Amino acid sequence: MMRLRGAVVILGCVHVASANAVLAADNYTSVKLTELNPDAQSTWKRLADEPIHYPRALAFNEVAGCSVVDVTISPAGQLQDIRVVQAQPFDVISLPAAQLIKSWQWYKSDSLPAREENKQIRLDFCYSGVSAQAADSLCMAQVKRACQ
After folding, report:
1. Strands (E) located in the chain
2. 90 or 20, which is more confident?
């Protein structure tokens, strides 16, 4: 069962609620995306129609955490560089976070010329055995804390 959520803009940060997947009985997940230091003149945007899926390896191991990732988008709209700068727990979250971002597609803002762009993206992975709402609540609290 999948439940899709839309995008919400909160105080200059972009929060995207992921598809909340019921993995098994009493297992619920949520992923929140925050673009750190968003630029009003941003050339490249992530295709928002694509749901952000909780990485399967994290879900099956009931792992929650966060990551901060630096990405560079080329003038052609391709992911040029990706570097995980923070993750908690680092050894477990960093690879799935990078793989998730590598799967994204980017589109150019209509009004701006194509150029290389650097972005810093935070992903929060939240897990609950209670409900999808509990997983979302955990993520809303987690995004307010430092990812260390």
Report:
1. 2-3, 7-10, 13-17, 20-24, 27-36, 44-46, 65-73, 79-88, 106-108, 117-128
2. 90
Sign of CA dihedral 60, 138, 4, 39: negative
Question: What are the Cα distances from residue 86, in Å, to 29, 97, 115?
Answer: 21, 11, 26
Is 131 a residue whose pLDDT tops 90?
A: yes
The partner residues of 113 in beta bridges, in order of sequence, read none
Give whole-number Cα distances, 142 to 44, 88, 108, 114, in Å.
26, 12, 30, 34
Question: Please, what are the domains in the chain?
Answer: 2-142 (3.30.2420.10)
Distance CA 68, CA 120 (A): 7
Of 121, 80, 118, residue with least CA distance to 100: 121
pTM of the model: 0.79
Q: What is the dihedral of CA 34, 39, 44, 46, to 10 degrees?
A: 20
Distance, in Å, from the CA atom of 75 to the CA atom of 108, rounded to the nearest integer, reads: 9
